[in-house]
Write a structure and sequence with these properties.
The protein is α+β, with helices and mostly antiparallel strands and about 190 residues long. It is built from 3 helices and 9 strands. It is about 25% helix and about 30% strand. The longest helix has 23 residues.
Length: about 190
């Protein structure tokens, strides 16, 4: 890649400074060649040459930082992911249209999972004021993520009161009714 960049720069140099410039640039690995001290070329040609040389140097440095095997660059350790039910970490995520009471986190199925349970404060009429469950799945290999939201079959706000693997138990703060929730499939059941 550096060789191609040098050839490209040599072509630019031919256009702006002639054959001597091309010879000097084609083999010089770093910095603007000494054959072109300030004043050796007209200022506009010197500026073009310096700008092009800087682009090539940036490309060369970037290429030097990329390992030959992109998978080798992947970190071997991932941040820790605390699992369980967290009643104090829910809050108003992802914005004021939701008010969550509890958060559950788990790991499995090749992903990191976060489930927020609470209430849809503002939103479409069919969801507003209803119990809401927001599922976030983060792929453990690619770190790609998806968000899914579900209207709970019990009155909101709802909270997560128990977990058995990926089976959560939700309870209504309004009337105490309960529902089961399968995190992976996104389905509700009677509890």
């Amino acid at each position: 890649m550096f060789r191609k960049a040098s050839v490209a720069l040599a072509a630019v140099a031919l256009a702006v400074g002639g054959t001597v410039a091309a010879r000097a640039l084609s083999g010089s690995p770093q910095g603007l060649p000494q054959e072109f001290p300030p004043g050796a070329l007209p200022s506009e040609k010197q500026a073009i040459l310096e700008e092009e040389w800087e682009r090539i140097e940036l490309s060369r440095r970037a290429a030097a930082q990329v390992p030959a095997d992109p998978k080798a660059a992947a970190p071997t350790t991932r941040p820790s992911w605390s699992t369980g039910i967290f009643p104090d970490e829910a809050g108003d995520f992802p914005g004021p249209e939701f008010s969550f009471t509890t958060l559950w986190r788990g790991v499995g199925e090749g992903s990191f999972w976060a489930v927020y349970a609470g209430l849809r404060v503002v939103g479409p009429p069919e969801e507003e004021g209803k119990g809401m469950v927001l599922v976030i799945r983060i792929d453990s290999e690619t770190w790609g993520h998806e968000f899914r939201r579900y209207v709970a079959p019990i009155p909101g706000p709802v909270r997560i009161v128990a977990a058995d693997g990926f089976q959560l138990t939700l309870a209504s703060d309004l009337d105490g009714s309960r529902a089961g929730f399968d995190v992976v499939t996104g389905t509700f059941s009677s509890a």
